Amino acid sequence: MKKPKKVLGIDIGGSGVKGAIVNTKSGKLKTKRFRIPTPQPATPEAIAGVIKKIAAHFKWDGLIGVGYPGVVQKGIVKTSANVDDSWIGTDIEKLLSDATHCPVHILNDADAAGYGEIKFGAGKGEVGSVLLITVGTGLGTVLFVHGKLVPNLEMGHLILHGDDAEKYASDAIRESEGLDWGVWAKRVNEYLCRIEELTWPDLIIIGGGVSKEGEKVFSHLKTRAKLVPAALQNEAGIIGAALAAKANFKS
Ligand code: BGC
Questions:
Q1: In the beta sheet, which residues pair with residue 9?
Q2: Which ligand 1 atom is nearest residue 110's CA?
Q3: CATH 3.30.420.40 fits 124-230, yes or no
Q4: Which residue puts its alpha carbon closest to atom 12 of ligand 1?
Q5: What's the whole-model pTM score?
Q6: What is the mean pLDDT of each run of 10 residues along the chain (251 residues)?
Q7: How does strand 163-164 pair with strand 226-229?
Q8: Which terminus of the chain has a smaller tally of CB atoms within 10 A, N or C?
Q9: How many CA atoms within 13 Å lie on the side-chain side of 73?
Q10: pLDDT at 1
Q11: What's the topology of domain 6-111+235-247?
C-alpha cells in the first residue's frame, strides 16, 4: 500500500478534541474541523470514545494521526499534565487503533503543531533553530534544529515564580484569573525571555488561539529572536499530526 495522501488528523486538547481530514501534499484541510468538548475526567477510555465518534463522523477507515497533550515515547504515554493521570503508561496507539479499527500514529500535540508550522506555516524554509510555543490550556514547546524535531521538549514546566510556567502564563490562566490582555501578555513575554535565554533560537513562533489576537498581545512581546504568530493558527496540530502519521506510515 502506498503512503496515503489523505490522513485524519486529530488534536486532543484540554477543552476540545478536534479532527479534520488533511491533504498531506498541500497541508490543507479537506473538510471542516469537527470538535467534541473534552470529556471530564479526560480518561483514556473517555477520550478513545470521542476519537471513535470523530472517525465515525468522517466515515473514516484510513490512517489517523493524533496529537496528545503530554510526553509520548514509542506510543506509550509518559505524562498527563492537563488530562487524567490514568493516562500514564497507556499504550495509546493500541487503545486508539482498537477503538477506531484504523492504523493510528501518536505524538505530542505541540510537536504535531511544530510539524505543521515547519512544513506549511511560519517556519517554512527556516534553516536555523525554530522554537514554537503553543499557548492554550498548557504551554507546549517545540524545537526544530535545521528542520529536525527535538521531541518532547517540556519547557511549559520550567519553574517561574515558584511553579510551572504554564500555571503563570497559559491561556487557561488568563481566563481563570480574568487577566486583561496586556497584563497577561507581559507574563507571556517574561516566559519567552526566560526560554530564550536557555535555547537561543533564530525564530520564535507563537501558536494556539493567541496567534490570532494581533497587536493587543504581540505589541507586548519583545524577544531577541524574530517572533511571529503561527500561520496555521489552531489548525497546526491537526495538520501536523496527519503529516507525522504519513511520515511514519509503514505499508
Ligand atoms: C504538556 C505538554 C503539552 C502542552 C500543551 C503541557 O502541559 O506537558 O506535553 O505539549 O501542555 O498541550
A1: 20, 65
A2: 10
A3: yes
A4: 69
A5: 0.96
A6: 89 96 98 97 98 98 98 96 96 98 97 97 95 95 94 97 97 96 96 96 93 91 96 94 94 71
A7: unpaired
A8: C
A9: 7
A10: 62
A11: Nucleotidyltransferase; domain 5 (3.30.420)
